[in-house]
Amino acid sequence: MIKKLLILLILTNISCSEQKKESFKLIGKTYQIENGSKLFMHDLVNNKTLDSAVIENGEFQFTQKLPEYPYWVILHTRDRSQSKDIWIEDKTMTFTATDSNFANAKITGSESNNLITELYKNVDFNKRKKLKEIEKKFIEQHPKSIISTFLLTNNLNTWGAKETKRLFKTFPDNNKNSQLGQRISDYLKTAKTPEIGEQFVDISMENPNGEIKKLSDLKGKVILLEFWASWCLPCRESNPDLVEIYNEYKSKGFEIYSVSIDQDKESWINAINMDNLKWTNVSDLQKPNKAAKLYGVSSIPDSFLIDQNGNVIDNKLRGKELRKKLEQYFASH
């Protein structure tokens, strides 16, 4: 695996800023998607739609210039029932879906895409601690790769400011000056992300009714500080499990303080009602969301688990991991 990664790193020409800002072309084939349907390309760095394409006879095409390469986007259907992350490079690439699940689509022409696929090959995503060790080791071994910049951005609140600063110092200037690099730099200037064992940093935002709700209002409870959005498919898919866990542990002193990074109030409220989210829901409906910036949240869903004394005891817990942690906590308290 290491030999393959080294070869891919050479082929990717290491960083984004050294490459010319030429147009890319993504030629795609879909499987059993209705003729005339639209696909959307969404910028995952700046959270905005870049372009759309109409499917004709199962085929589509995207062509345009991007601010830098490789560039991280997500390709999705209008209802987001199908989606796939792609690292775009300034060349001709192909997307081929052989079944109705975009997650299984094959991408060619992007060595960065190959690199991250190889990185996560045979990784058990349920073993979060091991996964984070693999990601940190990759960053330490390959500081010049833009993928390392992506991985560090995605782990800001996992590793905290001190470790983030140590790793960021090893990056070349072109990666530091990339859009992802600027996000890390901004985080290091402003973040107050509490590390495991430290007290939470308070948040004060409005709920859908315009009432101010503070995170500290729930102190004395076991709190899940949750970051999400109505347009985030993984967030919405995990909400039924979260509702079930909330109903199971609420009587024992468990609460959820949910911060949405939505900017559209109607979409936010509709998602709350549709997913039956009965806990504390807040947002400032701004970009960037102040609470997300404060906690170094770079991707969603994201979360912090806070104990009855106000100390952060874990983060990024979902589904079975969250349930297991709560079970252990309440059994010992």
Describe this structure in words.
- This protein has 333 residues and is an alpha+beta fold.
- It has 3 domains: 18-113, Sandwich (Immunoglobulin-like); 123-189, no CATH class; 204-332, Glutaredoxin (3-Layer(aba) Sandwich), CATH 3.40.30.10.
- It contains 11 helices and 15 strands.
- The protein has helices at residues 2-11, 111-119, 128-141, 146-153, 156-168, 173-176, 179-190, 233-249, 265-275, 290-294, 319-332; strands at 23-29, 38-43, 48-54, 59-65, 71-77, 83-88, 92-96, 106-108, 204-206, 212-214, 222-228, 254-260, 280-282, 302-306, 312-315.
- The strands form 4 sheets. It has a 5-stranded mixed sheet, covered by helices on one side. The protein has a 4-stranded mixed sheet with strand order 4-1-7-8, with helices on one face. Strands 3-2-5-6 form a 4-stranded antiparallel sheet, with no helix packed on it.
Provide a concise account of the structure shown.
The protein has 333 residues and is an alpha+beta fold.
Over the alpha carbons, how many angstroms does the gyration radius reach? Answer: 21 Å
Task: Give me the side-by-side strand order of the main sheet.
Answer: 13-12-11-14-15
Instruction: Examine the secondary-structure arrangement and name the CATH architecture of the largest domain.
Output: 3-Layer(aba) Sandwich
Helix content: 25-40%
In the CATH hierarchy, the third-tier topology of the largest domain is known as Glutaredoxin
Order of helices and strands: HEEEEEEEEHHHHHHEEEHEHEHEEH
| Overall form | globular
Number of domains: 3
Low-confidence stretches: 1-20
Number of helices: 11
Q: What structural class should be given to the helix and strand makeup?
A: alpha+beta
CATH superfamily of the largest domain: Glutaredoxin
Distance between the terminal alpha carbons, to the nearest Å?
Answer: 44 Å
Strand count, sense and closure of the main sheet?
A: 5 strands, mixed
CATH class of the largest domain: Alpha Beta
Strand content: 15-25%
Annotation, overall tally of beta strands = 15
Mean pLDDT: 87
